[in-house]
Structure formats: structure tokens, C-alpha cells
């Protein structure tokens, strides 16, 4: 990313451009439930991206 003068900036447009350089395609589309993408999280990234819930849900 530094080669493109994006030292600290990280947007979805830049992210999609960087994926194209690696031969990957980033797709997103608007649905009734929100935005849908073709990306999935790996197991080791779940702690960084997914919310935590320490207490069990009420029954």
C-alpha cells in the first residue's frame, strides 16, 4: 500500500484495489439486510472482528 501513497488510509475502495493486485476479487452488494460481501473471516481473526459476549443469553 505504501507504493500507492496510502500509508495510514484504509478504505473499502483501497482494500478492493489491493486485492486485485493479488489476483483476488472483492464483491459487495446491497441487500434488504444490509451489505453482502464475498469475504469470510479466518478463525484466528474472529477475536479481532467479532463482538464478545461473556454472559449466556437469557432464556
From TrEMBL:
Pfam families: Pox_D5 (PF03288). Residues 1-51 form the DNA primase/nucleoside triphosphatase C-terminal domain. It comes from the Bacteria. This is DNA primase/nucleoside triphosphatase C-terminal domain-containing protein.
Amino acid at each position: 500500500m505504501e507504493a500507492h501513497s496510502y500509508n495510514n488510509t484504509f478504505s473499502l475502495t483501497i482494500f478492493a484495489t489491493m486485492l486485485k493486485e493479488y489476483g483476488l476479487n472483492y464483491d459487495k452488494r446491497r441487500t434488504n439486510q444490509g451489505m453482502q460481501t464475498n469475504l469470510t473471516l479466518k478463525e484466528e481473526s474472529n477475536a479481532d472482528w467479532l463482538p464478545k459476549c461473556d454472559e449466556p443469553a437469557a432464556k
